Amino acid sequence: MAAEPLEEYLQWLAVERGRSRATLEAYRRDLRRLLDWATAGGRDPVALTPEDLERYANALRSTQAPATVARALAAIRGWYGFLVEERLLPEDPTARLTPARRGRSLPKPLSEEAVFAIIDGVADESPLGRRDRALLETLYGTGARVSEVCGIDLADLDLDEEVIRVTGKGNKQRLVPVGRSLRRALDAYLAPGGRGALVARRRTDRLFVNARGDPLSRQGVDLVVRRRALAAGVPSRGVSAHAFRHSCATHMLAHGADVRTVQELLGHASIATTQVYTAVAVATLQREYREAHPRAHD
């Protein structure tokens, strides 16, 4: 039965490779889809041939986005490689399975005007208003991932030194600076009438909490961002918590920051990941040049 070696593979990924829960769930969905396809065609998933897998890959390419196909094929190659290593298969049927081509998609940052409008539009001094302002300033001021922001504890704040300890992928920690606007927003949120009014009788060390005093979820963060964008009159297309991370990186590079500084701030393992944002900055420069320079179209 293919389900058992599949779960063994996922457990191996978690224990031996340290894959995140999100990655494991994505791989489980991808491989379950393969198993269902094989079963529907009367085939044993463990005994699929290279030709079977190529047909399946072509079916995926006709219905799924390139990034989704690339991840699915990575999961399939990994699983069959595991089966060979465990001597459950004599040879790997994915040897001829070509990786999906992934188009180069540039991050889509918000404009500085849009970010400022969303943040500065939070003017109320209610506990939730203070939280939302501090949350938005943290997303934009640190460039941290949404999951990283949700994971910040009170103990991670050192406002005397004006830094926040952020825990990223693989439990790697980094210190990110706290700018003036973020510092003011955090001071207001942590003052009486802010976070304390939300947690009240709850006990949590998390910095950002919801209206009930429980830790704020990733979905809750996105809800705050979209609601505040709507209130500020910023079109919702492309507005998300993750867009604030893209915007932080792109705006810093546009204002002359060194790419390695931005790499450290965002917690990228490879500078190549950060350099994508330089392409965004150049693309913005080219667009504005074409629109503004009087001889750009002659």
How many helices does DSSP assign? 13
> Which class do the helix and strand fractions yield?
mainly alpha
The low-pLDDT segments are none
Q: What is the first-to-last residue Cα distance?
A: 68 Å
| CATH architecture identity of the largest domain | Orthogonal Bundle
* H/E topology pattern: HHHHHHHEEEHHHHHH
Tell me the helix content.
55-70%
Order of strands across the widest beta sheet?
1-2-3
CATH superfamily of the largest domain: Intergrase catalytic core
Q: Regarding CATH, which class of the largest domain?
A: Mainly Alpha
Q: Give the strand content.
A: under 5%
Profile the largest sheet. Answer: 3 strands, antiparallel
Broad shape: elongated
Instruction: Report the count of strand segments.
Output: 3
What is the total domain count? 2
CATH topology of the largest domain: hpI Integrase, Chain A
Give Rg in angstroms.
Answer: 23 Å
- Provide the residue-averaged pLDDT: 84
Task: Outline the structure in words.
- The chain is mainly alpha-helical and 298 residues long.
- The protein has two domains: 3-85, Tyrosine recombinase, N-terminal domain (DNA polymerase, domain 1); 112-292, Orthogonal Bundle (hpI Integrase, Chain A).
- The protein is built from 13 helices and three strands; from the N terminus they run αααααααβββαααααα.
- A three-stranded antiparallel β-sheet has the order 1-2-3, with no helix packed on it.
- α5 runs antiparallel to α6 (127-142) and α6 (127-142) crosses α11.
- The longest helix is centred in the C-terminal third of the chain and has 22 residues, at 271-292.
- The N and C termini lie far apart (68 Å).
